[in-house]
Design brief:
- The structure is a single chain.
- By secondary structure, this protein is α/β, with parallel strands linked by helices.
- The chain has 2 domains: about 210 residues, Rossmann fold (3-Layer(aba) Sandwich), CATH 3.40.50.300; about 50 residues.
- Helices cover about 45% and strands about 15% of the residues.
- The chain contains 8 helices and 8 strands.
- The strands form 2 sheets. It has a 6-stranded mixed sheet with strand order 3-4-1-6-7-8, covered by helices on one side. A two-stranded parallel ribbon has the order 2-5.
- Strand 6, helix 4 and strand 7 form a beta-alpha-beta unit.
- Helix 1 packs across helix 7 and helix 3 runs antiparallel to helix 8.
- The longest helix has about 45 residues.
- It starts with a helix and ends with a helix.
- Keywords: GTP-binding, Nucleotide-binding.
- Belongs to the TRAFAC class TrmE-Era-EngA-EngB-Septin-like GTPase superfamily. AIG1/Toc34/Toc159-like paraseptin GTPase family. IAN subfamily.
- This is AIG1-type G domain-containing protein.
- InterPro entries: G_AIG1, GIMA/IAN/Toc, P-loop_NTPase.
- One of its GO terms (molecular function) is GTP binding.
Length: about 260
């Protein structure tokens, strides 16, 4: 604990001028405003990510925050209780491609989890599978970011987490690194400042290294995305042609019936 406190002080005395953050995590069907896009807006202090729709593509946005140039990459979410095989291939590629949108690589992954998420073994299995989309060292660069929209004390939040073995397992994998954000109080910028301090501490612990990124993989992913998009476009055109053909056939039959009558 003393060693961690020393590293934390060292990080704060030598603040980074640039922080690169990738937001990862699942999504829910209840229209929750505690998702990754809301977190990205909260951190950057601007509504730069669209929260009115599902994130379909990884997107990078940059702002100056507390004297640092902060890049945040928002990613498509997976369903918390579903395995990777049920996540669309294009979503998987977009998630993988996120690390290539903040070159030379992200300093930290923020695993965004609503503090009231019902975390079962299905969540654990899904998380393990989806994090395999990244390099093996993803956990050493991850902080768990618990989000809420209602006021609660630190002890109340921790009590909920302690009662949940899946959340305990997640924290264990991430070296017990965690932070809480109350997204309903965007005026409280101190929440963001403390988060950036924790990120800088993690960077110091990792020897200043960002998460390793394979540039050749980025080129492969972009080619896969192009191929998938082109195939989808061709299928759409084929379906549209069939619809138009069917419309013409129906109109022709209606004209015959009209003439007969």
């Amino acid at each position: 604990m003393a060693a961690y406190a020393h590293i934390s002080k060292l990080a704060q005395s030598q603040p980074a001028t640039e922080l690169r953050i990738v937001l990862i995590g699942g999504r829910r069907s209840d229209g929750s405003l505690r998702g990754k896009s809301s977190v990205g807006n909260f951190i950057l202090g601007q509504n730069v990510f669209d929260t009115s729709r599902r994130t379909a593509q990884s997107e990078a946005r940059q702002q100056e925050v507390f004297g640092r140039r902060v890049t945040v990459v928002d990613t498509p979410g997976w369903w918390w209780y579903w395995p990777t095989e049920d996540t669309p291939k294009l979503d998987q590629i977009e998630i993988q491609n996120s690390v290539h949108l903040c070159p030379p690589g992200p300093h930290v992954f923020l695993l965004v989890i609503p503090v009231d998420l019902h975390s079962s073994q299905l969540v654990k299995a899904s998380l393990k599978q989806h994090l395999e989309l990244f390099n093996a060292d993803v956990f050493s660069h991850t902080i768990v970011l618990f989000t809420a929209v209602t006021p609660s004390t630190y002890e109340e939040k921790m009590s909920r987490i302690r009662r949940n073995p899946v959340l305990q397992w997640i924290l264990q994998q991430c070296g017990d690194r965690k932070h809480f954000l109350n997204l309903s109080n965007r005026e409280d910028r101190d929440q963001v400042k403390k988060l950036l301090d924790k990120i800088e501490t993690l960077i110091t612990i990792n020897g200043g290294r960002h998460c390793s990124v394979d540039r050749s993989q980025g080129e492969t992913l972009r080619k896969e995305m192009t191929d998938l998009t082109e195939r989808a476009s061709k299928r759409f055109d084929q379906v549209q042609k069939q619809i138009n053909k069917l419309k013409l056939q129906i109109e022709g039959r209606l004209q015959v019936l009209f003439l007969i009558s």
